[in-house]
Amino acid sequence: MTNKLRYTVPGMSESDAERVVELLQGRLDATNDLHLTLKHIHWNVVGPHFIAVHEMLDPQVDAVRGFADELAERIATLGGSPCGTPGRLVEHRHWEEYSIGRATTQEHLGALDLVYAGVIEDYRKGIEELGELDPITEDMFIAQTNQIELFHWFVRAHLEDKSGNLSTAGATSETEAASAAG
Ligand SMILES: [Fe+2]
């Protein structure tokens, strides 16, 4: 899907606006994927800490869905057309589908640690680039990253020992992280 802009916000060049829209669309794909993944985990966790983790995740789902809405509306504000279809997301994402079904809370939190880490890394790359392109969108990315990093800490606090070591340290895949945490 091409995203030729017919107009954009005052004071921004068309080429800058096109790049900002691309960065926004990338985060729209990531947040749509993330809120669906968080619900999937909410439904599939089992074990003694079920209710704590099950209930911890719903406010994260709601917040991340709100981020997707903000990102999409920023695309429209810049004169672009946000794409929120599952097909686009699957075609363009550079990460793998979340790979764990029914599993213990620790296993899912271990895998979710890696999911959040990937999402945050991409937000930070976007922030770096947006510093030159558009401080308004940069501000949105910064505010969303602040919340997502907080949620990442909620997850990591379950994976940490008394000395502050993470059980998932060094894991390079969700399954590896899940088995290290479990
Ligand atoms: Fe529910």
Automatic annotation (TrEMBL):
CDD domains: DPS (cd01043). It holds the Pfam family Ferritin. It comes from Nocardioides abyssi. Residues 22-161 form the Ferritin/DPS domain. InterPro entries: DPS_DNA-bd (IPR002177), DPS_DNA-bd_CS (IPR023188), Ferritin-like (IPR012347), Ferritin-like_SF (IPR009078), Ferritin_DPS_dom (IPR008331). This is DNA starvation/stationary phase protection protein Dps. The gene is dps. Belongs to the Dps family.
